[in-house]
Amino acid sequence: MNTTTALTDSSRKIIEVSGEGMVAAAPDRALITLGAITEKVSLSEAQTENAAAVSSILQSLFQLGIPKEKVQTVQYGIEIQYNYKDGVQLFRGYKVTHLLRVTADKIEQTGVIVDTAVRQGANTVSGIQFASAHPETYYHQALTMAVHSSRHKAATLAKAMGVALHPTPLRIQEMSHGIEPHPYQIATFAAAPSTPIQPGELNISAAVKAFYSYS
Question: Which of 131, 164, 190 is the C-terminal boundary of a domain?
Fold first, then answer.
């Protein structure tokens, strides 16, 4: 976003500029989606086996010290499975899917959580995301940088035009809100012992549009 224009009307002269800011932050929260997928010819058997696996996963997570309020079901579904032969649909069985979202406030536990859940019956890890527990703090820093950027652009343009810029903007419009979890991966896999997980860093951005007057 690099909009920079100078507008003149009957009452005032205005410079319109954009401003951008970005702050790098170390994540301190992991969001892990994992669970069990069970396929059986009998629906009752599929449900029973799936429920047993998820119960075992939950108990293992609680034993790691994950609070119950940090674990929630995000998907539960039952699907009929078919095979196709010579254009004919043949019943194969049922698939039961139960996915849990685990919020870990200690990101160094991420690999342990994945490994422990897999050992207790989890056969899918469909997503790991890293986030900040207080992203608004970093966003406000990025927003401040965006405003400073807009002022610098306006001052540069005013100097090039040979006019005097009024340093206080007439109006500032927030254009974006860049606080989103950073995805580590989205895939189904079976974890190996001591799965290494690298959280990296978050890039939190902000953008504004500002209107300055000049004379």
Answer: 131
3-class DSSP assignment, residue 50:
helix
Mean local confidence (pLDDT), 113-138: 92
pTM across the whole model: 0.72
Provide the 10 A C-beta neighbour count for residue 127: 19
Residue 97 is part of a domain; what is its CATH number? 3.30.70.2970
Run of H or E residues at 182: strand 182-185
Q: Mean pLDDT over residues 121-139, rounded? A: 90
Are 54 and 120 in contact by the 8 Å Cβ rule? The answer is no
The two tokens of residue 181 are 């979890």
Residues 21 and 35 occupy one common structural domain: no
State phi, psi for 161 to the nearest 5 degrees: -85, -15
Alpha carbon of 187 to those of 128, 184, 190: distances in Å?
9, 10, 10
> What pLDDT is attached to residue 185?
45
Tokens for 3, please give them. Answer: 């909009």
Return the CATH number at 182: 3.30.110.170
pLDDT band of residue 180 (cuts 50, 70, 90) is low
Q: Which tens digit of pLDDT belongs to each residue from 47-102?
A: 999 999 999 999 999 999 999 999 999 999 999 999 998 889 999 999 999 999 99
Closest CA to 80 of 48, 46, 35: 46
Q: Give the count of alpha carbons within 13 A of 27, CB side only.
A: 27
Domain that holds residue 142: 4-27+134-214
